[in-house]
Design a protein that fits this description.
Layout lengths: L1 H8 L3 H16 L5 H7 L1 H22 L4 H18 L1 H5 L1 H15 L36
Helix pairs in contact: 2-4, 2-7, 3-4, 4-5, 5-7
Amino acid sequence: MAAFRRWRADRPFLGGLLLTLGGAEVLLTQKASLKVVMHIGMQGLAGYLLPVLMVICGLLILFNPAQRLFYSILGVLFSLGSWITSNLGGFLIGLLLGVVGSCLAFGWLPDQEPRRPRRWLRRRRKPVRPVKPAQPMESAGRP
């Protein structure tokens, strides 16, 4: 388990995973069989080609993080292209997963130290002193 954590920390794991899942979701929402797609031609083939390329880009981000910038840009383009070719990008779910995953992979910094868990929820604030109620002003020489 520790070896997997080290492997996962050395790459944009969540970005590659989301891009791969987005491509798989778009691919699974295709409704036409392959015979029909081949009969339709290039437009029908693009409906299967773009999600497959999304999955490939996601896997390449996971297994070759040195080229993550190039693969993430391609992943965004393929995800946005699935809007036209593949049932509105897998009914928007695959499109959004692909775009978010590509953006996470693009923004990942390899030399950044792992973040420490935030403890601000447990940190106690300084106690607030209670405010004394205002005392009525004494009338200054008034009857």
